[in-house]
Every structure is written in structure tokens, then in C-alpha cells.
Amino acid sequence: MSIEQRLQELGIELPEVSPPLASYVPVMVQGDLAFVSGQLPFIDGELVTGTLGDDVDVDRAMAAARACGLMILAQLQGVIGSLDKVERIVKLGGFVASTPSFTDQHKVVNGASDLMFEVFDEAGRHARAAVGVPSLPLGAAVEVDAVIAIRGN
Fold first, then answer.
1. Could you give all domains of the chain from N- to C-terminal order, each with its CATH number?
2. Phi and psi dihedrals of 13, rounded to 5?
């Protein structure tokens, strides 16, 4: 089954790619690795903003991290043409806007990690960082970037 068929089976629709907000490219392919810049969480066209431990709960933030993961896949597909070229999700980096006392960043970033396993099965398992930060661009609650091994490039 192709990844596109898998997405349909799961009822997952990738979002339209968003242009970069600053001086960078969304995806850089070097050899057999694709480096996907940090993606912000848009749900129903609106940026999920706020701070964990203050005005955003873990469930909302997990959904935001999943939205970041969906944008990672959309950006990647836009550059490599087909997600069937994905050999493995190598690493995700999750950044969570949070108060100093909030310590569940790992749970938040599971939103993106679980998506990768759901879509790519064992090839979706990856190394990861989940880091609390005081703020993110545009007030986003979460940002996720990725390193992805691709074949046939």
C-alpha cells in the first residue's frame, strides 16, 4: 500500500504547505536526508498559540504537535514528490512553549511522534528531543522539525 493510500485509509488529509516566515527554506535535501525546518501548528487554518502550564492544556498541545507533523509531511511531499520515498523518520525535534514548572513536554511531542508511527509503521519510529522553551515564533504553542531518510534522490 502506498503512503498516499495509507493516508486515505486513516482519513488523514495533508494541509496546504505554508511559505517560510523568514529567511530559510522549508526543506533541504542533502544526499539521502531531508531536513525539514520547524513547522508551526495550524488547526482549521488558525495558529495554535499559548503556553503550556498557563493557558494551553496537554491535549490541545498534542493536537498542535500532530498538526506540525502533518505540515512536515506536506512540506516534504512538496519537495520530494511522493511520501513513498520516505525510508525512515530519523529524528523529530519538538519545542514546547511552557512555563518553568511545566514538565510534560514529552507527552506534547507524542502528538507528532504517534502520527509518524501511524503513517509509516516501524519506519516512523525515530529519535527525538522534546524541549521546553519560553516562547516560539508568532506565539505558537509548539514547533516541530524533522530529519528524514529518503530513497531514490
1. 3-10+29-150 (3.30.1330.40)
2. -115, 125
